[in-house]
Amino acid sequence: MPGGVETYLSEIAWREFSYHLLFHFPNLPEVPLRSEFAGFPWADNAEGLVAWQRGQTGYPIVDAGMRELWSTGWMHNRVRMIVASFLIKDLLLHWRQGAGWFWDTLVDADLANNSASWQWVAGCGADAAPYFRIFNPSLQGAKFDPDGTYVRRWVPELAKLPNGLLHSPWDARPIDLADAGVSLGRNYPAPIIDHAAARQRALEAFKSLKKD
Ligand SMILES: Cc1cc2nc3c(=O)[nH]c(=O)nc-3n(C[C@H](O)[C@H](O)[C@H](O)COP(=O)(O)OP(=O)(O)OC[C@H]3O[C@@H](n4cnc5c(N)ncnc54)[C@H](O)[C@@H]3O)c2cc1C
After folding, report:
1. pLDDT digits (tens, 9 = 90+) for 153-196
2. CA of 80 to the centre of ligand 1 (A)
3. Which protein residue has the closest C-alpha to ligand 1 atom 34?
4. CA nearest to 68, candidates 48, 54, 50
């Protein structure tokens, strides 16, 4: 399976690259590699941080990942990217807050990989993902968890929703929610932020940085 081997080798290369970065930039865990990000208008949102940490954001794939992390200390790389994008771009919280939570909760917490990966998602690292790459959590959920196995396992209160609604329960009709025993805002949160509006806010914040 050549694709699998290539992916594996490229992930190993990312790991070694992270070590290289930490060696040459020992303040990688604290300071953005792209200096213009030092002035980024991060939000102050303690409630949002707690909702993210507890898997109570109202976005099923994000909540599944954060609950898995809390229960097991591990999360797949794809979900790490999704939850990190949500913290940084939807909630506009500082990447260091996310990195700190991962540091405390991941069994594979690693200063080089964690710091470099968070900076990569934030867009302020070396060879970072472009800032405008903002994951849509419901589309990511539908793409990478199409049959809903992952969300149903970690967010059991949504288990009875059909696949087409599982990653965006706010789109469900009241009758669909009632059939599945879901009451948004009661036994599962309504989204804590509107993704489309948050995306726009993040892009505006990014534009305000330009250029040194
Ligand atoms: C926001 C964020 C934070 C992260 N924090 C950490 C962390 O604290 N510690 C950590 O080890 N990894 C971290 N990673 C990288 C990656 O998610 C994990 O290394 C990977 O999920 C480990 O799974 P695995 O052992 O099944 O890897 P496999 O896919 O089986 O790969 C084998 C080995 O390659 C390395 N590796 C794989 N993917 C990556 C990657 N994307 N970046 C760097 N090395 C990789 C790991 O050493 C891994 O054990 C983070 C990624 C993101 C997006």
Report:
1. 999 999 999 999 999 999 999 999 999 999 999 999 999 999 99
2. 9
3. 12
4. 54
Q: Is residue 87 part of a domain?
A: yes
Token digits for 6? 């290539």
Tally of structural domains, the chain: 1
Active site (catalytic) residues? 11, 14, 42, 77, 95, 118
Are 99 and 115 within 8 A, CB to CB? Answer: yes
> In this predicted model, what pLDDT tens digit does every residue of 115-148 receive, in sequence order?
999 999 999 998 767 778 899 999 999 999 999 9
Domain span at 169: 1-30+43-212
Q: What are the helix (H) ranges across the chain?
A: 2-24, 46-54, 60-72, 77-85, 95-105, 111-122, 137-144, 149-154, 163-166, 174-180, 195-207
Q: Write the CATH number for 11.
A: 1.10.579.10
pTM, full prediction: 0.95
